[in-house]
Each structure stands twice: as structure tokens, then as C-alpha cells.
Amino acid sequence: MRLHYRSPRGWLNDPHGVIHRADGYHVFHQHAPETLDWGLGIEWGHAIGDDLFSLRYAGPAIQPGDGDDGIWTGCIVEDDLGPLAYYTSARQPVLGLASVRTARPRDTALTSWDKGDVVVTAPAGLGIRDFRDPFVLRDGDVWRMMVGSDSASGHAMMHGFVSTDGESWAYDGVALSRHRDETDGVWMGALWECPQVIEVDGSWVMLTSVWEAGRLHYAGYAVGEFAGGRFTPRAWGRLTYGTYYAPTVFRDAAGRPCMMAWLREVRGEDWTGCLSLPYVLRVDGDRLLAEPHPDLDAHAEPGTAERYTWLPEGLLELTDTATLELDGDVLRLVTPSLTAELPHDGGPVEVVLDDEVVEVRGGRGLLGGPAR
Question: Is the pTM of the predicted complex or chain greater than 0.85?
Fold first, then answer.
């Protein structure tokens, strides 16, 4: 693959901690270099690059040990002391009911980190069985942390915590929740993984991964307002179709709101999983839209076999074994390992075909996964 980042070997899942500094982009991701399957000893892998399509693996960043059985998804912010990581500290015997811990880098290249204290645990009294994936942002004079969970009531939840110094945190209540039986706009599951908030075109977006009963579904979102640590939705929607999961939001070197995700089921001889293309986010009315990041232009020109626009009609043969078909008001992607559909709004779609991966961007979202 030329346009999609993957680790040299082993298992890869959630991206997170995407930041731009003087030396370029730093992208962190879940990594198990010694196995092709998800396992207990997940660590943070680290990639660096001059742009988002020139990422190269730089080695492990934060690894299990010192009280952590698994180093799961988190984020990185910068305070007066420099980069500060918040990560999910998974511990046996109940890995999913995790805590949040901090770490700071020992060097300016961010290649090795010293772990800090556990700063957040799941709130009591809500029957929470799964709690993980901190996302931290600055809100005026305070820091706010969002963490996802399920609940005994059947509500997927995004919990809020607040801090003045980034080190001592107080529970601030449920920032947003939705019952698993609600389906208006989109079904949002029983647990939110990686819930994150970001301002896009004057609106706030909550983007999360939809989970229920051990099954990974898709990226769903709410568009609305975020104030005082509470998210007030005005509309719900679905962004991804296919094998996207665990999108992370960030701001690029130009300050644009962006996201990239994990693409499941993509694999090679000694590796499993890759990162999606990076996308710039837009809000049009109550809909969240994603457009390929402009850095793509320097790596794949429009109108080439790698990247082209198709006005859907009939059947498009992507490869000898993969097709994209317009069937009524849906686009259907069929590959040897995937069949997935994207609602179609009648407009053109952009196709990126990169060896093992295909991604399709249309007016109703993103459709993608393994091309083989």
C-alpha cells in the first residue's frame, strides 16, 4: 500500500493522539507487533511523517507493565509542560472496565514515555460494565475529558470530567447519552467507544464508535452544541459503512478539523489492520461530511487509476474480483471478503483504490474496507 499507513508487522487498530509539531505529524495507534490478532498486550505504536501520507513506523511508545495489562486508546494534548498523554489502562480481571492514566515523553521525538498516575475511574451507581477511551480538550479556563461507557439502563454514555491543571480530575456528570432502543436518524448502540467532540463550521460534533454485545458496528455522530460540559444534539447520523471503526478527530497543521479511522479486516502476510485516509470534516445543515485531506493531491492525482470520480450507473469493476454497483438508492461494494452498502444521494462519488484497500466517498458518508 502506498496511501494507507500500516505497521511493519503485527496487529493494528485504533488511531489516536494525532498531533502536528515542528518536526511534522505524530500519529499513535493500538499495536500488537507479535501477533496478527487482537490480544491482551496491546501497546501504543508511534508513526511520524512530514504529512499525513508519509507516515512511517517509529517504534513502540507506551507499553504494558507497571500496573497496565493493556495500553488502550486515548489522546494527547499539550500544556505548559509539553505533550501529555491520557490512555486507557486496561487491567485484569475485567479489562473493559478500565481506568485513565497519564504519561509524559522523555524526549522531544516522543519515542519513550514515563507513566503517571491513574486520574479517572468509572463513576459508581450506573451499572457500568465497560468504561474507556479518554478524549481531552481545552474549554476556556478548564480542561474537559470525555470517556465512553455503557450503563445498566441501556444507555450508551459519554461521561464528562473537569480539571484546572490536567492532573487532578473531578466527575462532572453525563455529557451525552442515548438509549440503545432509539433509532431516530441512526441507531447508536449500547456502548460508545472513543467518543470525541470537535467544533466544525460553527457547530459541534460528537463522533463515536457504535458497539453492542461484543460487535463493532460503525461511526455514528450527533450534531449540536457543546457548552458547560454538556452536549445538546439537534440531529443524529451515520458517517461510515464497511469496516471503518474507531475514528479519531484532530486538527491538522492548518487548523482544519480532521479525522482518520481504523480499517478492519485489511491484512497481508505478516500484518493485520491499517489506517484509513485522513479526511477533513464539514457540517452541512445537520449532516457531517468528510472529504479527503488535501495532502492526498501530492500523492495521488485525481483522474488516475488510484483515485478517480465516478458518476454511479450500473456496475463498476474496481479490480478483477471487486465491484461497486448502483442498485436503486444504494451503492454496493462487493469484494472477496466484504459486502457493504452506502446510501446514495444521486451525486458523483470519489474512489481511492490502494492495493489491499478501497475507499469510496459519497454524499451520504464513507464506504470502504479490504479490496481483496
Answer: yes
